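User: My collaborator sent over this chain with a note saying "see what the structure looks like." That's all I know about it. Can you take a look?
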Amino acid sequence: MKATEISLFSFFETNSQYIVPSFQRPYYWNSERWDTFISGLFDSFAKHPEQDIFLGAIVIMPTADSSESLKKYLLVDGQKRLITILALLAAMRSAIAAISPELAEKIAHMCFLNKDKSGSYHYKLLPNKRNRTSFFNSLEGVDSSGQRNLFPASIFFYQRICSENNDLTAFTSYLLEKIKIVRISLDKNENPYPIFRSMNMSDKPQKLDDLIQFSNFADDPELMILIASGESDHIEFKEGISGTYKQGKYIENMGHNIVRNVAAFMNNGGGTILIGVTDDGKIKGLKDEYIKADQSKKNWDGFELHVHNMIRQSLEGSNATQYYKMKKHSIAGKDICAINIKPADKPVYHNKHLYVRNGNQTIELLGPDLVEYVNKQWDKNEN
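Assistant: Without extra context I'll predict from the sequence alone. Here is the result:
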């Protein structure tokens, strides 16, 4: 564990992304909390502009899929404060856009957006899925008078800012320069649960299921970091390989869906598929899948062989099976299958169809799109 006092700007300055764990509750602060927050900032700006503003401790943990071009962290504690200050800065950016477009642009690139990144990687903070659409709309700079769904906190702050008689440019610079936090960075092999629990004792009670998910970090921190980061361009969760119920409908051939995703990851960038995990990051395990995969064995060996056979029988390409590995993990007594997939040197087809990843979805390419993608993707590998 390492603790460092830094400015808000330093916290966000490089290409980085802070991810609210998939099993943390959505952002829930209301207008009363927002009013107290912004009133305190206005008061400090008016009376003590030379003093720093301490936002508190922010606890982070590096994720397993960080890279040199994008450092990714799990936001163990501090999501409400970070989301609130970014919502305020989004409102400030909208308010000063006509006065100082350069400063408005500076806010976006300092605190909101990762340069040259697309999809979900474009944003420096990923909140709970239920908050993302409106939060991202506000970060992108949609004016509060527009018709698109905006983050409620940003709307509230925009209205307060417009009603105050402040120098908006000076107040914006004040926020960027004077807000300080203590960044507590955990190691990948640390269990964040004790810290999360101790720092949330006086907060709104956490759901029991979510507390259990955090406590599971002790069993396998790196895997739980991956799960808590949620589904993304390179991470996919699957409950199992057999049929399942979703929204009251029975969905068959989940195994075929998994194989399509394996092929898609091979065709652009690689990735990881976790079987035994629900879409919202809950640990389901493989007990039922063992029974369905091989009635004679009903264990990991039978399940592993079954999945290998599914992949080998459906994928077509230059020895496609060399591009993936399977591994069993155990969390709280429940097994999870991780399929780690590398990008292939040549196109890999699933039953004569070419699949690729598009954001966090798997799509089939057809006609001219297929030809163009194959030429670009694998020509560059050969040059």
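A starting point for your reply to your collaborator: The mean pLDDT is 84.
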